[in-house]
Design brief:
The protein is an all-beta fold. It is about 0% helix and about 50% strand. The strands form two sheets. Strands 2, 4, 5, 6, 9, 10 and 11 form a seven-stranded mixed beta sheet that branches. Strands 1-3-8-7 form a four-stranded antiparallel beta sheet, with no helix packed on it. Strand 7 and strand 8 (about 80-85) form a beta hairpin. The chain is globular and about 40 Å long. It starts with a strand and ends with a strand.
């Protein structure tokens, strides 16, 4: 079965850090782009970052640039999102999703990529940042 499983969410104080993991099973990240998304209560889901399966390209939206870092460990078939200097507005459910590189580019164009181009989604992990 093809699936993604996120973990690592939790409650943290403002200024703190968390590392989210996105583990794949049933497929490898080779040939894929892996995006991180988040959905805050009452808001639409938004893009956060993207990394290619080889780790050669990454993209971050402006609101997390300089604070969040995405990386991958192909030996573990896992992608990470290291989140530092967390702020209350980072509170959300965080999702990872995978899409083929033929459809998804980890560049500025990721901002405009339809979510339907990423065919495999995880169940989400909640992150709460207290002030």
């Amino acid at each position: 079965e093809v699936q993604l499983v996120e973990s690592g969410g939790g409650l943290v104080q403002a200024g703190g850090s968390l590392r989210l993991s996105c583990a794949a099973s049933g497929f490898t990240f080779d040939g894929y782009a892996i995006g991180w998304f988040r959905q805050a209560p009452g808001k639409k889901r938004e893009k956060v970052s993207c990394i290619t399966g080889t780790g050669s390209s990454t993209f971050y939206v402006d609101s997390v640039k300089g604070r969040f870092t995405t990386s991958n460990d192909n030996a573990k078939n896992t992608v990470y999102l290291q989140m530092n200097s967390l702020m209350p507005e980072d509170t959300a459910v965080y999702y990872c999703a995978a899409g083929r590189l033929s459809l998804v580019s980890c560049s500025n164009s990721f901002k405009y990529t339809p979510e339907r181009y990423l065919g495999v989604w995880g169940q989400g992990t909640p992150v709460t940042v207290s002030s």
